[in-house]
Amino acid sequence: MLLTRKQTCQLGILLSIHRQHSKIDQILIHQQIELLEVLTGFETNNKYEIKNSFGQRVYFAAEDTDCCTRNCCGPSRPFTLRIIDNMGQEVITLERPLRCSSCCCPCCLQEIEIQAPPGVPIGYVIQTWHPCLPKFTIQNEKREDVLKISGPCVVCSCCGDVDFEIKSLDE
């Protein structure tokens, strides 16, 4: 069977992602602070370094939203987050539509689609309603539940890292 150039490229990207992930036992995500945002309070596109447990950068992530959306919708804003490997190749795209973030409105909670390679949905992260805790469900490409994520009652990073636990469905 012969593969087209596009299929060969997609297969190469998937193999690269698999090789990178098979070496990663933990990920650390560090937001890059923008001086303009700190000084003015004016929201800029977020950027993140994604590192392994040795502190080595394995990916870089950059938000793609317009200025009006960032500053009017705040943390509930819709966005596209592009994850780029160390070779400069976009390997994962995260798409989040505009949704509510209020615990009082459980009918329209946060949801994000994961595409790898970009344009090919491989899974979803769906917010699960809870009055106090940040809780999420990871779903596969068929929207079947696969894993659960739960975070701490107070999500504040000013005192250090914020840990989220990934658990099996039966916890």
UniProtKB/TrEMBL annotation:
Q: Tell me what organism the protein belongs to.
A: Pan troglodytes
Signal peptide annotation = none
User: Which cofactor does this sequence's record say it needs?
Assistant: Ca(2+)
InterPro entries xrefs: Scramblase
Family, per entry:
Belongs to the phospholipid scramblase family.
Name the GO cellular-component terms: membrane
Predominant cellular place of this UniProt entry's protein: membrane
Instruction: Please list the GO terms describing molecular function.
Output: phospholipid scramblase activity
Q: What is this protein called?
A: Phospholipid scramblase
The annotated topology with respect to the bilayer is: Single-pass type II membrane protein
What PANTHER family has UniProt attached to this entry? PHOSPHOLIPID SCRAMBLASE 1, PHOSPHOLIPID SCRAMBLASE-RELATED
Q: Which domain of life is it from?
A: Eukaryota
Identify the taxonomic lineage of the organism of origin.
Answer: Eukaryota, Metazoa, Chordata, Craniata, Vertebrata
Compartments in which it is found:
Membrane
Q: Could you tell me what this protein does?
A: May mediate accelerated ATP-independent bidirectional transbilayer migration of phospholipids upon binding calcium ions that results in a loss of phospholipid asymmetry in the plasma membrane.
- Keyword annotations from UniProtKB, A to Z: Calcium, Lipoprotein, Membrane, Palmitate, Phosphoprotein, Transmembrane, Transmembrane helix
